[in-house]
Amino acid sequence: MKRIGDLPDTIPIFPLPGALLLPRARLPLHIFEPRYLQMIEDAMKTPTRLIGMIQPRELPDGQTGTRLQAIGCAGRLTGFSETEDGRYMISLTGVSRFRLHEEISGFTPYRRCLAEWAPFGRDLGPVETDPDFDRSGFMELLARFFAAMELSTDWSSLKEAEPELLINSLSMLCPFSPEDKQALLEAPSLTTRRETMVTLIEFALRGGNDEELLQ
């Protein structure tokens, strides 16, 4: 799948709050609901094995149902195992972001949509670079954030990771709000995503609303 024309018009979608997938990154998922077990089985029968990860968003007071964000990211099913009790452990590798053009109703227990790929043609291109990336300064800020949040990581791997892998993996793994993760997903470039992440980290270190300062 190296061209937009290789991508299908219709994809199954998996609405999951706080779950972020980015191009060329990997997302592990634990699947146990019957409708999503069926989705995985159906996706494995298709040539592309694509599943669209997309976040739900809150509806105004008084409305029912689940509205979806306008933009998600499709991943190719690249890892699969089944547990003894029938659950699936899968891995998705990000292929391209998409704009949700229209939901398709009926025929399947899971949701599907018509996907618009054209706005994200660069996702199918080579690995992105970040010419202004200050790794040492970024790592110092990240260390403060991890200490404040009491998070642990393999620092040697982070220090050696290429900028795209580093920024995208942290965007997916860090405990940002669903709204913040959506902003990271929609960032038009790797540089913009890194700048957005720095802003989010600095905001968290200031205590967010300045009422609960992180020590």
Automatic annotation (TrEMBL):
Gene3D superfamilies: LON domain-like (2.30.130.40). It comes from the Bacteria. Residues 11-205 form the Lon N-terminal domain. PROSITE patterns: LON_N (PS51787). Pfam families: LON_substr_bdg. InterPro entries: Lon_prtase_N, Lon_prtase_N_sf, PUA-like_sf. SUPFAM superfamilies: PUA domain-like. This is LON peptidase substrate-binding domain-containing protein. It comes from Szabonella alba.
